[in-house]
Design a protein that fits this description.
Strand content: 15-25%
Number of domains: 2
Radius of gyration: 21 Å
Shape: globular
Number of helices: 10
CATH topology of the largest domain: Alpha-D-Glucose-1,6-Bisphosphate, Chain A, domain 3
Largest sheet: 5 strands, mixed
Number of strands: 15
CATH superfamily of the largest domain: Alpha-D-Glucose-1,6-Bisphosphate, subunit A, domain 3
Strand order of the largest sheet: 2-1-3-4-5
Structural class: alpha/beta
Oligomer: single chain
CATH architecture of the largest domain: 3-Layer(aba) Sandwich
Distance between the termini: 78 Å
Length: about 300
């Protein structure tokens, strides 16, 4: 009987392999100081090994030790108050940029050099302007900060809109070979990262883009057009379809365009909304944006009237 021999077990250092992959992707045109908040999740050891002795990037890490109890602020950096420590540290060390990852490292949230949170719509515009991909995908909630830049010729990328959710985004990216996708939740997807989302890859791309700005990140951000937004808000309702029909009847006569890609999207002269049903709960999720404070206040009041029982 012929004997079989098993190959010896080979140990692989996953952090080392990942750091080798990411190290070459952290590029900076000038010296940069970054603060990372790793939320006591998986990214702390990887950031440390990736950027150790980087010639252009000095960095510090808060909440870098993995701890499943998440003692600092919980695993989700988008929750209220979660960025407080990062904001303070950015200001204390006078960093150029702050980055917070969620626990599993697939999302990234950013703070500018003044310690102010940067919305995903602003990060999306920065990446689209500076990366200049031929084709990109945005979740339909990103809004006018990107769309107006496309209409004005500032962003020359061929941009399509997507339903919310990584399943739809990844499927479309692979089918269309799209280079970049941006989601309002802080997920960013890259063709050169297997059409997947990565907080660390996003940090690398944003850091490189900020390093190429002529001014501080905050100065560039404050130069952008200002819009007035209602952060995505959920409303408990008894009959989701009934309420959505009511909203459509109320506003479709004023709408310049209507889209049913994900729920109902209506674009009017000086404001737009998207309202979509939750899959498993009696909730409607509302996003609303306007060009002026007056238009925002008026639109929000009118829409809220339709959402009341």
């Amino acid at each position: 009987m012929k004997s079989s021999h098993c190959s010896p077990i080979k140990k692989i250092d996953g952090v080392e392999l990942a750091s080798e992959f990411f190290r070459d992707r952290f590029r900076s045109r000038r010296p940069m100081r970054i603060v990372f908040d790793c939320s006591n999740g998986s990214t702390g050891p990887l950031v440390e090994k990736t950027l150790h002795r980087h010639p252009q990037i000095s960095f510090s890490i808060i909440n870098g030790r993995p701890n499943g109890d998440f003692p600092a602020h919980g695993p989700d950096p988008t929750k209220e108050g979660a960025l407080n420590g990062l904001k303070k540290e950015v200001c204390r060390v006078r960093a150029d940029l702050g980055v917070a990852f969620d626990a599993d490292g697939d999302r990234a949230v950013f703070v500018d050099d003044n310690g102010e949170e940067i919305g995903a719509n602003i990060i999306s515009r920065l990446l689209l302007e500076r990366m200049a991909p031929k084709k990109a995908l945005i979740d339909l909630r990103i809004g006018w900060l990107v769309k107006d830049a496309v209409r004005d010729g500032i962003i020359k990328t061929d941009i399509s809109e997507s339903r919310v959710g990584h399943y739809f985004i990844k499927k479309t990216m692979r089918r269309e070979r799209i280079e970049l996708a941006c989601e309002l939740s802080g997920h960013y997807y890259f063709r050169d990262f297997f059409y997947a989302d990565s907080g660390l890859m996003t940090a690398a791309k944003v850091l490189e883009a900020v390093s190429k700005l002529e001014d501080d990140f905050s100065v560039w951000k404050n130069s952008l057009p200002k819009y007035y937004r209602l952060p995505e808000t959920s409303f408990e309702v008894e009959d989701k379809k009934k309420i959505m029909r009511r909203v459509e009847r109320r506003f479709r006569g004023e709408a310049k365009s209507m889209l049913r890609l994900d729920g109902l999207s209506l674009e009017l002269d000086d404001w737009w909304l998207n309202i979509r049903p939750a899959n498993t709960e009696n909730l409607l999720r509302l996003n609303l944006e306007a060009r002026t404070k007056e238009a925002f206040d008026s639109a929000a009041e009118r829409v809220m009237e339709e959402l009341r029982p």
